[in-house]
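Write out the bound-state structure for pyridoxal-5'-phosphate.
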Amino acid sequence: MERLKKALIYDRAVHPERTNATPERIFEVLENVLGEKARAHKEHLQAQLPSLRSPINESQAQFVADYLDKALLEREALQQIIEQLELSEISTAEAVELHHRYKIPVSHPEEDIVPVKGDGCWIMDTKGTWYLDTDSNYSATNLGMANEEIARGLYNQASTLISMKEDRIQIARTRFLKEIHTMMPKGLTQFYWQNSGGEAVDKALKIAKAYTGTTKVIAFKNSFHGRTHGAVAVTWNEKYRRPFGLHNLDWVFFAEFNNIDSVRNLVEKSGAKIIILEMVQGEEAGNRPATQEFVDALWALAKEKELVIIDDEVQAGFGRTAVKKGDWFACMSYNVVPDIMVIGKSFGGGYPVTAVVTKKEISAAMQYGYDGSTFGGNPMAMTAALIATRQMRERDVTGNVVERARQMMEGFKRLENKYEIVSDPHGRGLMVALSLGSPENVAKVQKNLRQLGVKASLSTGPYLRFLPPTVISEGEVNFLLDKLDQAIASL
Ligand SMILES: Cc1ncc(COP(=O)(O)O)c(C=O)c1O
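---
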């Protein structure tokens, strides 16, 4: 039973990322696979190995492997036990406990599942249960939850050159620069790579300030731009800003979204030259798109008043909000080009990489010494980005989004007709939401969905939001809609 022993013991040559299994995990896996029958095996092992250590040592692993090999006549069960141990040597309870003990509690932890493996749009947890993912890690894993080709590229890159500071020229970045231009809106040719969306928003604000020689910024009510100091300063929800003294800034003004008069008034009153917006407001507005009329009026106002528009596409970009094939960014679907665009989340295929992209004339305002980044555009991130964006084009992500979005919206409308509590289905591309009447209903439906094999954790007030992987298939959308129907029916 060499494979079972290997799943119990840390093998540095093959899996340097692991440790030996803990007894808690061994017993959990037995229970996952054998249910009630696990108890007898657990009692036997505890009796035979009274000083079972956590994690176990090599001779204990040998004992456990020999015992299970003889005791478990169903080879399929043994196979499942091995696979689950290979995925995690640590139990669910230990993972949750260590999270609470050591993590700074900045966000509400989702404790219902602890994911260990992905396959396309599906995630498996420590219990061996599969769920259809409908969040894409806030639109970061749009190509799915695991990616063999990116894994191979990252292995090759890490084996040759794992990191290189931002101000040194390197080939992984050159390779990506040769390919990425075809996906960009016309005229946005200058890149500055970062590691998170918030960081890229901060840098976009710096570039806009340097270019205009001004500091005032107009953002929008219900906006969300991230958690770094600059990004949170232009984020609407006061709860995110007040604890840090960022709620009464003399350089940030919030206009009504989809209301050009409100923007014009604020521009005239404040003299601001910089505007930042999400073309589809996500986190805080429940996936609410700008109207075409508003976008056209905003771009006309910008022209008239010489404003710089920063378009935050950290969530909306890379096909997520496509309305027609080839709409790699929301701005393309609205037929406008921003002055500065912030891109992020999904173009590393799950690996962290973001960027500010702008026009040559604006980028020239940044001088040597104005900024810098140790990890920005590092070889690992550039390699992941090269492979992920190539896959997006090869897999026709925008074409798929257009089709699946139509399917989702038709399904939502059927639910609206069927159930009293369902209303206001809306969105753009695969950035969609529907109202279930109250946050309580949303929480209940999310719980029901989980029991039906669908993980849907995103919400804004009474809205249940969905950001499924942009590669989701027709069959998977049907599965999601069917389970959503059942989850609402059993409210
Ligand atoms: C529109 C938008 N901008 C910026 C961010 C911040 O990105 P990150 O969490 O990578 O800092 C987010 C995150 O959800 C976002 O939705």
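---
The pocket of pyridoxal-5'-phosphate is lined by residues 138, 196-198, 201, 224-226, 278, 282-283, 312, 314-315, 344 (CB under 6 Å).
Residues 148-394 form a domain with the Aspartate Aminotransferase; domain 2 fold (CATH 3.40.640.10).
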